[in-house]
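User: C-alpha coordinates for this complex, please. No commentary.
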Amino acid sequence: MQDEHQGFDTEAVHAGSEPDPHFGAVSVPIYQSSTFAFDSVDQGAGRFAGTESGYIYTRMGNPTVAALEEAVALLEHGHGAIATSSGMAAISNVFFTYLEANSHIVGTDSVYGPSRVVVEKYFSRFGVESSFVDTSQPDNIKKAIRPETVMLYIETPENPTIRLTDIAACVEIARENGLLLVVDNTFATPLLQRPLELGADIVVHSMTKFLNGHADVVAGIIVTSTEEQWARLRRALNHHGGCIDPHQAWLVHRGLRTLGLRVRQAQENAIAIAEFLRQHPAVEWVRYPGSPDYAQRELAERQMEGPGAILCFGVKRGLEGGRKIMEAVNLATLAVSLGGVETLIEHPASMTHASMSTEDREAAGITDNLIRLAVGCENTEDLIADIGQALETLV
Ligand code: LCS
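Assistant:
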Protein backbone atom coordinates (compact mmCIF):
# COMPACT_ATOMS: atom_id res chain seq x y z
CA MET A 1 0.00 0.00 0.00
CA GLN A 2 2.84 2.35 0.98
CA ASP A 3 4.36 1.94 -2.50
CA GLU A 4 1.25 3.34 -4.18
CA HIS A 5 1.72 6.60 -2.30
CA GLN A 6 3.68 9.65 -3.37
CA GLY A 7 5.52 11.84 -0.85
CA PHE A 8 3.43 13.34 1.96
CA ASP A 9 3.73 16.95 0.80
CA THR A 10 2.98 16.02 -2.82
CA GLU A 11 -0.19 14.28 -1.72
CA ALA A 12 -1.13 17.10 0.69
CA VAL A 13 -0.83 19.66 -2.10
CA HIS A 14 -2.63 17.67 -4.80
CA ALA A 15 -5.08 15.29 -3.11
CA GLY A 16 -8.69 16.08 -3.96
CA SER A 17 -7.53 19.09 -5.97
CA GLU A 18 -8.06 18.18 -9.63
CA PRO A 19 -8.69 21.32 -11.73
CA ASP A 20 -12.41 22.03 -11.83
CA PRO A 21 -14.04 20.51 -14.97
CA HIS A 22 -16.14 23.61 -15.73
CA PHE A 23 -13.59 26.44 -15.78
CA GLY A 24 -10.31 24.81 -14.78
CA ALA A 25 -10.17 26.51 -11.37
CA VAL A 26 -7.04 25.25 -9.61
CA SER A 27 -8.57 25.77 -6.16
CA VAL A 28 -11.58 23.51 -5.57
CA PRO A 29 -14.72 25.69 -5.97
CA ILE A 30 -16.90 26.27 -2.91
CA TYR A 31 -20.24 24.66 -3.74
CA GLN A 32 -22.17 26.72 -1.21
CA SER A 33 -25.48 25.08 -1.97
CA SER A 34 -27.75 23.16 0.37
CA THR A 35 -29.40 21.22 -2.45
CA PHE A 36 -28.67 20.00 -5.99
CA ALA A 37 -31.11 20.05 -8.93
CA PHE A 38 -32.12 16.82 -10.68
CA ASP A 39 -32.52 16.68 -14.47
CA SER A 40 -35.56 14.44 -14.11
CA VAL A 41 -37.73 12.66 -11.56
CA ASP A 42 -36.02 9.42 -12.56
CA GLN A 43 -32.60 10.91 -11.92
CA GLY A 44 -33.68 12.15 -8.46
CA ALA A 45 -35.12 8.76 -7.61
CA GLY A 46 -31.96 7.07 -8.90
CA ARG A 47 -29.73 9.24 -6.72
CA PHE A 48 -31.78 8.38 -3.64
CA ALA A 49 -31.72 4.70 -4.57
CA GLY A 50 -27.94 4.85 -5.06
CA THR A 51 -28.17 3.64 -8.65
CA GLU A 52 -27.14 7.06 -10.03
CA SER A 53 -24.10 9.02 -8.91
CA GLY A 54 -24.41 12.72 -8.11
CA TYR A 55 -25.32 14.98 -5.25
CA ILE A 56 -28.70 15.39 -3.54
CA TYR A 57 -28.46 17.53 -0.41
CA THR A 58 -25.38 18.86 1.42
CA ARG A 59 -26.01 16.94 4.66
CA MET A 60 -25.70 13.79 2.53
CA GLY A 61 -22.71 14.93 0.46
CA ASN A 62 -21.25 17.95 -1.29
CA PRO A 63 -18.47 18.24 -3.93
CA THR A 64 -16.32 20.67 -1.87
CA VAL A 65 -16.64 18.44 1.19
CA ALA A 66 -15.93 15.34 -0.92
CA ALA A 67 -12.65 16.86 -2.14
CA LEU A 68 -11.50 17.36 1.46
CA GLU A 69 -12.62 13.85 2.42
CA GLU A 70 -10.66 12.36 -0.48
CA ALA A 71 -7.54 14.27 0.57
CA VAL A 72 -7.62 13.27 4.25
CA ALA A 73 -8.42 9.63 3.40
CA LEU A 74 -5.37 9.56 1.12
CA LEU A 75 -3.04 11.13 3.71
CA GLU A 76 -4.23 8.68 6.39
CA HIS A 77 -3.88 5.73 3.95
CA GLY A 78 -7.54 4.98 4.56
CA HIS A 79 -10.41 3.74 2.43
CA GLY A 80 -12.67 6.77 2.79
CA ALA A 81 -13.51 9.69 5.07
CA ILE A 82 -16.52 11.57 6.41
CA ALA A 83 -16.05 15.21 7.39
CA THR A 84 -18.06 16.57 10.32
CA SER A 85 -18.92 19.90 11.93
CA SER A 86 -16.42 19.39 14.78
CA GLY A 87 -14.05 16.80 16.19
CA MET A 88 -16.68 15.96 18.81
CA ALA A 89 -19.26 15.38 16.05
CA ALA A 90 -16.84 12.88 14.46
CA ILE A 91 -16.23 11.08 17.76
CA SER A 92 -19.91 11.12 18.74
CA ASN A 93 -20.87 9.72 15.33
CA VAL A 94 -18.49 6.79 15.78
CA PHE A 95 -19.95 6.10 19.25
CA PHE A 96 -23.51 6.58 18.01
CA THR A 97 -22.92 4.13 15.16
CA TYR A 98 -21.11 1.34 17.00
CA LEU A 99 -22.11 1.41 20.69
CA GLU A 100 -25.15 -0.82 21.21
CA ALA A 101 -27.39 -0.63 24.29
CA ASN A 102 -25.69 -2.46 27.19
CA SER A 103 -22.39 -2.73 25.35
CA HIS A 104 -19.06 -1.72 26.88
CA ILE A 105 -16.19 0.45 25.68
CA VAL A 106 -12.58 0.56 26.88
CA GLY A 107 -10.79 3.87 26.40
CA THR A 108 -7.73 5.91 27.28
CA ASP A 109 -8.29 7.63 30.65
CA SER A 110 -6.68 10.91 29.62
CA VAL A 111 -8.50 11.47 26.33
CA TYR A 112 -9.70 14.97 25.46
CA GLY A 113 -12.19 15.59 28.31
CA PRO A 114 -15.48 15.70 26.33
CA SER A 115 -14.63 12.48 24.39
CA ARG A 116 -14.86 10.68 27.71
CA VAL A 117 -17.71 12.74 29.14
CA VAL A 118 -19.92 12.00 26.12
CA VAL A 119 -19.72 8.27 26.93
CA GLU A 120 -19.94 8.56 30.70
CA LYS A 121 -22.76 11.11 30.83
CA TYR A 122 -24.83 10.53 27.70
CA PHE A 123 -24.29 7.02 26.31
CA SER A 124 -24.57 5.67 29.87
CA ARG A 125 -28.28 6.63 29.69
CA PHE A 126 -28.66 3.86 27.10
CA GLY A 127 -26.89 1.31 29.25
CA VAL A 128 -23.45 1.73 27.67
CA GLU A 129 -20.75 1.04 30.24
CA SER A 130 -17.18 2.26 30.00
CA SER A 131 -13.75 1.67 31.47
CA PHE A 132 -11.27 4.48 30.90
CA VAL A 133 -7.86 3.16 31.86
CA ASP A 134 -4.19 3.97 31.43
CA THR A 135 -3.83 2.43 27.95
CA SER A 136 -0.09 3.15 27.89
CA GLN A 137 0.09 -0.24 29.65
CA PRO A 138 -1.54 -2.84 27.32
CA ASP A 139 -2.23 -5.11 30.33
CA ASN A 140 -4.67 -2.53 31.70
CA ILE A 141 -6.66 -2.84 28.47
CA LYS A 142 -6.72 -6.64 28.61
CA LYS A 143 -7.95 -6.53 32.22
CA ALA A 144 -10.74 -4.07 31.39
CA ILE A 145 -12.22 -6.10 28.51
CA ARG A 146 -15.56 -7.83 29.21
CA PRO A 147 -17.70 -10.16 27.08
CA GLU A 148 -19.88 -7.18 26.09
CA THR A 149 -16.94 -4.91 25.09
CA VAL A 150 -17.27 -3.75 21.48
CA MET A 151 -14.80 -0.90 21.10
CA LEU A 152 -11.28 0.12 22.09
CA TYR A 153 -10.95 3.90 21.85
CA ILE A 154 -7.47 5.36 22.21
CA GLU A 155 -5.81 8.72 21.88
CA THR A 156 -2.06 8.80 21.31
CA PRO A 157 -0.30 11.06 22.12
CA GLU A 158 -2.83 11.76 24.85
CA ASN A 159 -4.24 15.19 25.48
CA PRO A 160 -2.74 16.73 27.64
CA THR A 161 -0.43 14.24 29.37
CA ILE A 162 1.60 13.37 26.23
CA ARG A 163 1.68 9.70 27.13
CA LEU A 164 1.62 7.21 24.27
CA THR A 165 -0.38 4.05 23.66
CA ASP A 166 1.13 1.25 21.57
CA ILE A 167 -1.16 1.07 18.52
CA ALA A 168 0.26 -2.24 17.24
CA ALA A 169 -0.34 -3.85 20.65
CA CYS A 170 -3.91 -2.50 20.62
CA VAL A 171 -4.48 -3.95 17.13
CA GLU A 172 -3.53 -7.36 18.46
CA ILE A 173 -5.78 -7.03 21.52
CA ALA A 174 -8.68 -5.72 19.42
CA ARG A 175 -8.37 -8.60 16.93
CA GLU A 176 -8.17 -11.24 19.65
CA ASN A 177 -11.31 -9.87 21.29
CA GLY A 178 -13.32 -8.83 18.22
CA LEU A 179 -13.22 -5.10 19.11
CA LEU A 180 -13.36 -2.11 16.81
CA LEU A 181 -10.14 -0.11 17.32
CA VAL A 182 -10.66 3.63 17.01
CA VAL A 183 -7.68 6.02 17.25
CA ASP A 184 -7.84 9.78 17.77
CA ASN A 185 -4.89 10.91 15.66
CA THR A 186 -5.35 14.65 16.24
CA PHE A 187 -2.06 15.24 18.08
CA ALA A 188 0.21 13.29 15.72
CA THR A 189 -1.42 14.05 12.34
CA PRO A 190 -0.94 11.63 9.41
CA LEU A 191 2.49 13.17 8.79
CA LEU A 192 3.82 11.56 11.98
CA GLN A 193 1.55 8.58 12.60
CA ARG A 194 -0.81 6.49 10.47
CA PRO A 195 -2.83 4.15 12.70
CA LEU A 196 -4.71 2.52 9.80
CA GLU A 197 -1.41 1.30 8.34
CA LEU A 198 -0.72 -0.37 11.68
CA GLY A 199 -4.08 -2.16 11.55
CA ALA A 200 -6.48 0.18 13.41
CA ASP A 201 -10.06 0.21 12.06
CA ILE A 202 -11.01 3.87 12.27
CA VAL A 203 -9.19 7.19 12.78
CA VAL A 204 -10.83 10.36 14.05
CA HIS A 205 -9.50 13.91 14.03
CA SER A 206 -10.38 17.26 15.34
CA MET A 207 -9.55 19.09 12.09
CA THR A 208 -9.87 22.27 14.17
CA LYS A 209 -6.24 21.54 15.05
CA PHE A 210 -3.30 20.73 12.77
CA LEU A 211 -5.23 19.65 9.66
CA ASN A 212 -6.75 23.10 9.29
CA GLY A 213 -3.92 24.75 11.18
CA HIS A 214 -5.02 28.38 11.32
CA ALA A 215 -7.26 28.62 14.40
CA ASP A 216 -10.20 29.80 12.30
CA VAL A 217 -12.37 26.69 11.82
CA VAL A 218 -14.01 24.06 14.03
CA ALA A 219 -14.29 20.76 12.14
CA GLY A 220 -13.71 17.01 12.40
CA ILE A 221 -13.30 13.91 10.26
CA ILE A 222 -13.64 10.13 10.47
CA VAL A 223 -11.36 7.99 8.30
CA THR A 224 -12.28 4.34 7.77
CA SER A 225 -10.33 1.32 6.63
CA THR A 226 -13.23 -0.38 4.79
CA GLU A 227 -16.16 0.48 2.53
CA GLU A 228 -18.58 -1.20 4.93
CA GLN A 229 -17.52 1.06 7.83
CA TRP A 230 -17.56 4.12 5.59
CA ALA A 231 -21.10 3.43 4.34
CA ARG A 232 -22.40 2.73 7.86
CA LEU A 233 -20.88 5.88 9.37
CA ARG A 234 -21.95 7.99 6.37
CA ARG A 235 -25.56 6.81 6.72
CA ALA A 236 -25.54 7.48 10.46
CA LEU A 237 -24.21 11.01 10.00
CA ASN A 238 -26.81 11.68 7.29
CA HIS A 239 -29.49 10.76 9.78
CA HIS A 240 -28.39 12.49 12.92
CA GLY A 241 -26.65 15.52 11.37
CA GLY A 242 -23.30 17.02 12.28
CA CYS A 243 -22.20 17.52 8.66
CA ILE A 244 -19.57 20.12 7.79
CA ASP A 245 -20.43 23.33 5.94
CA PRO A 246 -18.86 23.57 2.43
CA HIS A 247 -17.09 26.83 3.20
CA GLN A 248 -15.53 25.35 6.35
CA ALA A 249 -14.49 22.30 4.33
CA TRP A 250 -12.81 24.53 1.77
CA LEU A 251 -10.89 26.39 4.48
CA VAL A 252 -9.67 23.12 6.01
CA HIS A 253 -8.66 21.82 2.57
CA ARG A 254 -6.66 25.00 1.98
CA GLY A 255 -4.89 24.54 5.33
CA LEU A 256 -4.27 20.86 4.68
CA ARG A 257 -2.05 21.65 1.70
CA THR A 258 0.65 23.02 4.04
CA LEU A 259 0.22 20.42 6.81
CA GLY A 260 3.72 18.97 6.34
CA LEU A 261 5.41 22.39 6.25
CA ARG A 262 3.61 23.58 9.36
CA VAL A 263 4.03 20.45 11.46
CA ARG A 264 7.73 20.17 10.64
CA GLN A 265 8.36 23.82 11.59
CA ALA A 266 6.31 23.58 14.80
CA GLN A 267 8.03 20.31 15.71
CA GLU A 268 11.47 21.85 15.22
CA ASN A 269 10.42 24.63 17.60
CA ALA A 270 9.01 22.13 20.11
CA ILE A 271 12.27 20.13 20.15
CA ALA A 272 14.23 23.32 20.94
CA ILE A 273 11.73 24.54 23.54
CA ALA A 274 11.58 21.17 25.32
CA GLU A 275 15.35 21.20 25.65
CA PHE A 276 15.35 24.80 26.88
CA LEU A 277 12.69 23.98 29.49
CA ARG A 278 14.53 20.83 30.61
CA GLN A 279 17.61 22.88 31.43
CA HIS A 280 15.79 25.76 33.12
CA PRO A 281 16.08 25.96 36.92
CA ALA A 282 12.43 27.07 37.33
CA VAL A 283 11.12 23.95 35.53
CA GLU A 284 10.51 20.76 37.52
CA TRP A 285 9.63 18.38 34.72
CA VAL A 286 8.96 18.26 30.97
CA ARG A 287 7.13 15.55 29.05
CA TYR A 288 7.84 15.48 25.32
CA PRO A 289 8.41 12.43 23.07
CA GLY A 290 11.50 14.11 21.59
CA SER A 291 13.30 14.54 24.93
CA PRO A 292 16.13 12.11 25.74
CA ASP A 293 14.56 11.28 29.13
CA TYR A 294 11.05 10.63 27.74
CA ALA A 295 9.81 7.42 29.36
CA GLN A 296 8.30 5.93 26.17
CA ARG A 297 11.09 6.91 23.81
CA GLU A 298 11.35 3.47 22.20
CA LEU A 299 7.62 3.42 21.43
CA ALA A 300 7.72 7.01 20.14
CA GLU A 301 10.49 6.09 17.71
CA ARG A 302 8.77 2.89 16.59
CA GLN A 303 5.28 4.31 16.16
CA MET A 304 5.77 7.93 15.17
CA GLU A 305 7.84 9.62 12.50
CA GLY A 306 8.56 12.57 14.81
CA PRO A 307 7.77 13.75 18.34
CA GLY A 308 5.15 16.33 17.35
CA ALA A 309 4.57 19.90 18.45
CA ILE A 310 2.85 19.58 21.82
CA LEU A 311 4.49 19.20 25.19
CA CYS A 312 3.54 19.57 28.82
CA PHE A 313 5.58 20.69 31.78
CA GLY A 314 5.42 21.66 35.45
CA VAL A 315 7.22 24.53 37.11
CA LYS A 316 8.38 25.25 40.63
CA ARG A 317 5.65 26.39 43.02
CA GLY A 318 3.10 24.15 41.28
CA LEU A 319 -0.15 25.70 40.16
CA GLU A 320 0.70 29.14 41.51
CA GLY A 321 3.98 29.10 39.55
CA GLY A 322 2.15 27.86 36.46
CA ARG A 323 -0.39 30.68 36.68
CA LYS A 324 2.43 33.20 36.78
CA ILE A 325 4.04 31.72 33.66
CA MET A 326 0.78 31.60 31.71
CA GLU A 327 0.13 35.24 32.54
CA ALA A 328 3.69 36.40 31.89
CA VAL A 329 4.07 35.09 28.33
CA ASN A 330 3.54 37.63 25.57
CA LEU A 331 4.11 35.82 22.28
CA ALA A 332 2.49 32.55 23.33
CA THR A 333 -1.23 33.15 23.70
CA LEU A 334 -3.22 31.99 26.72
CA ALA A 335 -5.92 29.98 24.96
CA VAL A 336 -7.20 26.43 24.58
CA SER A 337 -6.94 24.50 21.29
CA LEU A 338 -3.72 23.58 19.52
CA GLY A 339 -2.26 22.80 16.12
CA GLY A 340 -2.43 26.32 14.67
CA VAL A 341 0.46 28.40 13.39
CA GLU A 342 0.41 30.38 16.64
CA THR A 343 1.79 29.05 19.94
CA LEU A 344 -0.86 28.53 22.63
CA ILE A 345 -0.48 27.84 26.33
CA GLU A 346 -3.21 26.56 28.66
CA HIS A 347 -4.00 24.93 32.00
CA PRO A 348 -5.87 21.63 31.37
CA ALA A 349 -7.12 21.04 34.94
CA SER A 350 -9.12 24.28 34.93
CA MET A 351 -9.80 24.53 31.19
CA THR A 352 -9.87 21.69 28.59
CA HIS A 353 -10.25 18.90 31.15
CA ALA A 354 -12.36 20.74 33.74
CA SER A 355 -15.42 18.67 32.72
CA MET A 356 -13.77 15.54 34.20
CA SER A 357 -14.11 14.87 37.94
CA THR A 358 -11.09 15.77 40.09
CA GLU A 359 -10.56 12.08 40.93
CA ASP A 360 -10.64 11.04 37.26
CA ARG A 361 -8.25 13.84 36.36
CA GLU A 362 -5.80 12.86 39.07
CA ALA A 363 -6.02 9.17 38.15
CA ALA A 364 -5.31 10.11 34.51
CA GLY A 365 -2.21 12.14 35.47
CA ILE A 366 -3.75 15.54 34.68
CA THR A 367 -2.21 17.17 37.71
CA ASP A 368 -2.97 20.73 38.78
CA ASN A 369 0.59 21.80 37.99
CA LEU A 370 0.49 20.54 34.36
CA ILE A 371 0.83 23.27 31.73
CA ARG A 372 0.24 22.40 28.08
CA LEU A 373 2.21 24.17 25.39
CA ALA A 374 1.00 23.78 21.80
CA VAL A 375 3.94 25.06 19.80
CA GLY A 376 3.35 27.01 16.60
CA CYS A 377 5.39 28.15 13.61
CA GLU A 378 6.97 31.35 14.91
CA ASN A 379 10.77 31.69 14.91
CA THR A 380 12.39 29.47 17.52
CA GLU A 381 14.49 32.21 19.13
CA ASP A 382 11.46 34.47 19.64
CA LEU A 383 9.50 31.71 21.35
CA ILE A 384 12.42 30.79 23.59
CA ALA A 385 12.97 34.46 24.50
CA ASP A 386 9.29 34.80 25.43
CA ILE A 387 9.10 31.64 27.52
CA GLY A 388 12.47 32.46 29.07
CA GLN A 389 11.35 35.90 30.25
CA ALA A 390 8.18 34.37 31.72
CA LEU A 391 10.21 31.74 33.60
CA GLU A 392 12.50 34.42 35.00
CA THR A 393 9.54 35.63 37.09
CA LEU A 394 9.88 32.38 39.09
CA VAL A 395 13.61 32.30 39.61
N1 LCS B 1 -9.80 15.11 20.05
C1 LCS B 1 -8.74 15.77 20.55
C2 LCS B 1 -7.46 15.04 20.78
C3 LCS B 1 -8.86 17.11 20.88
O1 LCS B 1 -7.81 17.74 21.38
C4 LCS B 1 -10.11 17.77 20.67
C5 LCS B 1 -10.31 19.20 21.03
C6 LCS B 1 -11.19 17.04 20.15
C7 LCS B 1 -10.98 15.71 19.83
C8 LCS B 1 -12.52 17.67 19.88
O2 LCS B 1 -12.47 18.42 18.72
P1 LCS B 1 -13.37 19.73 18.42
O3 LCS B 1 -14.78 19.30 18.57
O4 LCS B 1 -13.00 20.77 19.41
O5 LCS B 1 -13.01 20.06 17.01
N2 LCS B 1 -9.31 19.71 21.85
C9 LCS B 1 -9.26 20.88 22.39
C10 LCS B 1 -8.24 21.30 23.24
O6 LCS B 1 -7.31 20.61 23.64
N3 LCS B 1 -8.43 22.56 23.55
O7 LCS B 1 -9.60 23.04 23.03
C11 LCS B 1 -10.21 22.01 22.24
